[in-house]
């Protein structure tokens, strides 16, 4: 898709399980922009047992947010890579007003603004069902659902043949805490991006392809 030559920074908003990662990956492929997922970066650090991974682990296991200073530094570092010069699809960041302000300042310094912040609206009951059945590829992080988006062969990634696993923080108790944290700390970003004129609300309680189509229309509208 041709989205003109100005950098396109998109922020995927929505509760845990709303479909941000699934849609961000598709957008990243269609738009040729990197997907920047703070959760994926933390999980990669966990796998590699880096100091950052060790620091983040306790927060992630409890379904809490990793402190802002650490998270902001980590994502700004990623956004400063040359592949993000034309923009990025951000998924899972920002999650607090402080993170949103830090991102805004970093972009303004390059004379760039967030172009679009789609909010995927999904009922709480639906997100609980989605997280309970979520499976992720250990190798390429592709996303599946045992009912809504199953792999061709159970437990095996269609794209790379990697093994699928269930995230530890998708256990019901942790999911409830993650939802609580979302409403308390992240939901205010909806008002923040509305006030900046870039919020687009999308009914995320529909099949993946229908949500995709609305997102692509929103990108097209934001790019003209
Ligand atoms: P998030 O990144 O917002 O936490 P994910 O993209 O990981 O959410 O999606 C959570 C789960 O829901 C995954 O198992 C995914 O396959 C599934 N899923 C995503 N979008 C939809 C949809 N529109 N309908 C049904 N299931 C979906
Ligand atoms: P996610 O993959 O987006 O569901 O994130 C998994 C976990 O990583 C979250 O529950 C947090 O513990 C941590 N995390 C991811 N992104 C952020 C963020 N922007 N700020 C703070 N913690 C985060």
Could you explain the architecture of this structure?
It is a single chain. This protein is an alpha/beta fold and 224 residues long. The chain has a single domain (8-123, 181-223), classed as Rossmann fold. Helix content is 47%, strand content 16%. It has 9 helices and 8 strands. It has helices at 20-31, 38-47, 51-62, 68-79, 97-108, 124-132, 172-186, 188-195, 208-223, and strands at 8-12, 35-37, 87-91, 114-121, 134-137, 143-145, 164-165, 199-203. Helix 1 (20-31) crosses helix 9 (208-223). The protein binds adenosine-5'-diphosphate (ADP) and adenosine monophosphate. Residues 16, 38-39, 42, 59-60, 63-66, 71, 92-95, 99, 169, 178 line the site of adenosine monophosphate. Adenosine-5'-diphosphate (ADP) binds next to helix 1, strand 6 and helix 9.
Going across the biggest sheet, name each strand in turn: 2-3-1-4-8
CATH class: Alpha Beta
Order of helices and strands: EHEHHHEHEHEEEHHEH
Classify the fold: give the CATH topology.
Rossmann fold
Taking all residues together, what is the mean pLDDT?
A: 95
CATH level-two architecture: 3-Layer(aba) Sandwich
- Main structural class: alpha/beta
Fourth CATH level, the homologous superfamily: P-loop containing nucleotide triphosphate hydrolases
Give the oligomeric state of the chains in this entry, treating copies of one chain as homo and distinct chains as hetero. Answer: single chain
Low-confidence stretches: none
Q: In whole angstroms, how far apart are the ends?
A: 12 Å
Small molecules in complex:
adenosine-5'-diphosphate, adenosine monophosphate
- What's the total count of β strands? 8
The largest sheet, given as strand count, sense and whether it forms a barrel, is: 5 strands, parallel
Shape: globular
Please tell me the total number of domains: 1
- What is the beta-strand fraction? 15-25%
Count the DSSP helices: 9
Helix content: 40-55%
- Rg is 17 Å
């Amino acid at each position: 898709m041709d989205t003109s030559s100005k950098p396109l920074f998109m922020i995927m908003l929505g509760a845990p399980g709303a479909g941000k990662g699934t849609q961000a990956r598709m957008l990243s492929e269609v738009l040729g922009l990197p997907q920047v997922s703070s959760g994926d970066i933390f999980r990669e650090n966990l796998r590699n047992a880096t100091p950052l991974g060790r620091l983040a682990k306790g927060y992630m296991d409890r379904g809490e947010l990793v402190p802002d200073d650490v998270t902001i530094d980590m994502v700004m570092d990623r956004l400063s890579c040359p592949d993000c010069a034309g923009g990025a699809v951000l998924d899972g960041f920002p999650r607090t007003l402080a993170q949103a302000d830090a991102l805004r300042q970093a972009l303004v310094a390059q004379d760039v603004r967030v172009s679009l912040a789609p909010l995927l609206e999904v009922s709480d009951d639906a997100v609980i069902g989605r997280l309970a059945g979520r499976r992720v590829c250990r190798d390429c992080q592709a996303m599946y659902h045992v009912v809504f988006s199953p792999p061709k062969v159970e437990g095996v990634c269609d794209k790379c043949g990697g093994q699928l696993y269930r995230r530890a923080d998708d256990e019901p108790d942790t999911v409830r805490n993650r939802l609580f944290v979302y409403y308390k700390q992240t939901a205010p970003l909806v008002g923040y991006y509305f006030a900046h004129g870039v919020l687009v609300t999308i009914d995320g309680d529909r099949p993946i392809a229908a949500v995709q189509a609305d997102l692509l229309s929103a990108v097209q509208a934001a790019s003209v």
